[in-house]
Amino acid sequence: MFKKTVFALFSAAFALSAHAQDELSLQLNGFVDSYHALQAEYPHKIMSSRTRLRLEMRADYGEASLYSSMNLAYNSLIKDQSGAFLREAYFDYAGKYLEVKAGRQIVTWGVADGLRLTDLISPMDYTEFMANDYDDIRVPVNAINLKYPGESFSAEVVFVPVPEYFVMPSGVDNPWTMPLPPNTSMDLSGTPEKRLKNSEVGGRLRFFLENLDFSLTALRTFNKSPITVAGYDPEAKSAVIKGVYEPMNVVGGDVSIPAGEIVIRGEVAAYFGEPIALKNSIDYWHRSSFNALIGIDWYAGDNWTVMAQYMHKVIMDYQSVLGTEQNTSMITARISKELLNNTLKLSVYGMFDVDNVGFYVRPAADYLLSDQITLSLGGDLLGGRRGTFKTYKKNTQMWVKGKYFF
User: What local confidence, expressed as pLDDT, does residue 9 receive?
Assistant: First the structure.
C-alpha cells in the first residue's frame, strides 16, 4: 500500500509536468534528525536511540497540488519502528468557493495546546509516551475534507472511512511499555471492523470577526484511546487486559480572543456515550461527560512567551462504581525565552494532573547553529502520588537531539 501510494503521487506529478512544464512547480525538501535519551536514575539505561530521514514532496499546478511525506527511520531499541513509513499523501485543491483535501492527512481542530477536547480525529502515537515533539506523535488518517473558505465564515466537513486509533507502547524492548501484573497480557487489537457503519464523520463552522474567532463542531467518532477491562484467556490460562473502543458523539466549540499582548483561548466539548471502565475492571458503562478548557497566551515582549491552560472534565450521572473520579482536572504551562539574537531558545513545558498529584516537566534548550542545523538538549521529569505520571517515574531521562533541514 505504501509503495502504491508513493508511486501514484509521483506518477501524477510527472503527468502534470509532461502536460504543462511551465506551469508546474515541484518542491522536494525535508530534514534529518537524531534523538538519544538516557535514564536519569540507576541503572542509567538507554531510553531511546533513533535517527530519521523525512522526505517531503510537493507538486503545485494552478489551484491543485499533490503532497507526500515519508520517514526512513532507524530505532536501535524498538525494532518495528525501523523502516520506511508513509506519513502523509494527499491531493489538495484550493478553489475560490471550495477546498478539497483527499488522502492521508493530519486533521487538527480546536485551540488547546497539547490537550484534546474537540481535536479527536487524528489520534496520538504513544510508542515512546510523550518523549517526542507533539507534532511528531500525531497519527495521520485517510480522509476526505471538504471546505467552503469564506472570508468571515468557513464550513468544513470531514469523512474518515476507516478511523485510526492511539498507538500504545508495547513490547519487551520498549522502556515505555506499561508494567503488567505477573501472568497477564495486553490485547488492544479489538478495534471496530473496517465497515462503513464504523466510519467517522464531522463538521465544523468557523467565524472570523474583528476581535473574536470562534467555531462550532460536531463529530461522530470513537474513543481513540482504549479503555481497558480484565478478562481471561482459557488457552493461555492467564489474565488478559483487553482494549475497548466504542462509538460516541461529540459536540463542542472553541473561541480565541486577542487583546494586545494576550490571547485568551477557550474550548468546550460534550461527549455522549463515552465508555468508562468500572472499578472492578471487568466491565464498562456508557456515560456522557462535559469538558472545558481555558487558556491564556502572553507574548510579553523581549522574546518572552508564557502560556497556561486549565482543563476540567465532569462525568454526568456519576456512580461510585465507575473507575474514575467524577471531576478530573489538568493544568499545563509553557514558558520560553529567546536569546543571542534569537539563536538560543530556552523553554519549559509542564503538565500537572491535579487529582493524582502527578506531573510531567520538559525543560529544553534549542540552539540554532545555522539556518539549517539545530542542536537541542533537555530532559523529561515524571512523578507524582499516583496515575500514569507516577507509573513512569523511573523513566525520567536526559536527552539530546540534532536536526538538519534541507
Answer: 47
**Helix/strand/coil (H, E, C) string of the chain?**
CHHHHHHHHHHHHHHHHHHCHHHEEEEEEEEEEEEEEEECCCCCCEEEEEEEEEEEEEEEECCEEEEEEEEEEEECCCHHHCEEEEEEEEEEEECCCCEEEEEEECCCCCCCCCCCCCCCCCCEECCCCCCCCHHHHECCEEEEEEEEECCCEEEEEEEECCCCCCECCCCCCCCCCCCCCCCEEEECCCCCCCCHHHCEEEEEEEEECCCCEEEEEEEEEECCCCEEEEEEECCCCEEEEEEECCEEEEEEEEEEEEECCEEEEEEEEEEEEEEEEECCCCCEEEEEEEEEEEEEEEEEECCEEEEEEEEEEEECCCCCCECCCCEEEEEEEEEEEEECCCCEEEEEEEEEECCCCEEEEEEEEEEECCCCEEEEEEEEEEEECCCHHHHCHHHCEEEEEEEEEC
pLDDT tens for 357-384 read 999 999 999 999 999 999 999 999 999 9
Provide the pLDDT confidence category of residue 22 given band limits of 50, 70 and 90: low
- pTM here? 0.90
